[in-house]
Amino acid sequence: MKRFLGIFGLIVSLSTFASKVDTVLVKSPLMSKEVEVVIIIPDAALVNTNKAFPVIYLLHGYGGNAYTWRGLKPDLDKIADEKGIIFVCPDGKNSWYWDSPKNPSYRYESFISTELVEYMDASYNTLADRRGRAITGLSMGGHGALWIAFRHKDIFGAAGSTSGGVDIRPFPTNWEMSNQLGEFAQNKKLWDQHTVINQLDKIQNGDLALIIDCGLGDFFLAVNQGLHSRLVARDIDHDFILRPGEHNETYWKNSIDYQILFFSKFFSQLNNR
């Protein structure tokens, strides 16, 4: 089934399990283009239109797209039904989810934190409050989720990272980061300013519910341990999990279950108030 939803774009609806999967083209005036987004809506949100549902924004890694998370975790549809959570998976290209200081057509921080959140709250029966929003991602998306959450704690109440590239500076020639920041040697200040590990001055303990995990065989292990140490030094509570695994799909398929459980507990606090 195809239909147009106002100015926001084209939606293609598919039924899997009892949930619904929408593939949406969301217009971004900031970037003068449309961004593809996969949205998984639990059955309860379709049946009970008077109830607001929490949302987890899932960010893909380098080389991924809007379909990455659903391909990686096909039972997200079932989890959406079981947990009563809406999952939102935007295509972030290879942007590292920055507003690039070098490329004005890449403003994915603003797109996700403003345009996409506003689209979701206007188009679906979301819990339109930071207490009903979480954001996480894998690898590049782990960096992006923490980058956005640290800088927009008024929008997101919880954030996570699995196998995240949480300090980009040890990898100056990798994953097209120089396309967004310029070459490292000539732009060290920009690289310092655009790495997650240097954003901790923007949060205090209690601002965000945080979960960070990494495999013991992951090439991002050291930078995740560094982020953990800095969070501890600043007395910022967070869950930090190291388990056997490498930077691969096998690890992410397992780790995301723990993150969804963490966010579900965060959302459940709303029902206890």
How much of the sequence lies in strands comes to 15-25%
Order of strands across the main sheet: 1-2-3-4-6-5-7-8-9-10
Any idea what the shape is? Answer: globular
The poorly predicted ranges are: 1-17
Helices, by number, come to 9
Q: Residue share in helices?
A: 25-40%
User: What order do the SSEs take from the amino end to the carboxyl end, as H and E?
Assistant: EEEEHEHHEHEHEHHEHEH
> Roughly what is the average pLDDT, rounded to an integer?
92
Number of strands: 10
The main β sheet shows up as: 10 strands, mixed
Structural account:
- It contains nine helices and ten strands.
- Strand 7, helix 5 (140-151) and strand 8 form a beta-alpha-beta unit.
- It is globular, with a radius of gyration of 18 Å.
- Helix content is 33%, strand content 23%.
- The protein has a ten-stranded mixed sheet, with helices on both faces.
- It has helices at residues 43-47, 68-72, 76-83, 108-123, 140-151, 177-181, 188-193, 221-233, 249-268, and strands spanning 2-5, 9-16, 19-28, 33-41, 55-59, 86-90, 133-137, 158-162, 209-215, 239-243.
- By secondary structure, it is α/β, with parallel strands linked by helices.
List keywords for this structure.
273 residues, alpha/beta, 10 strands, globular
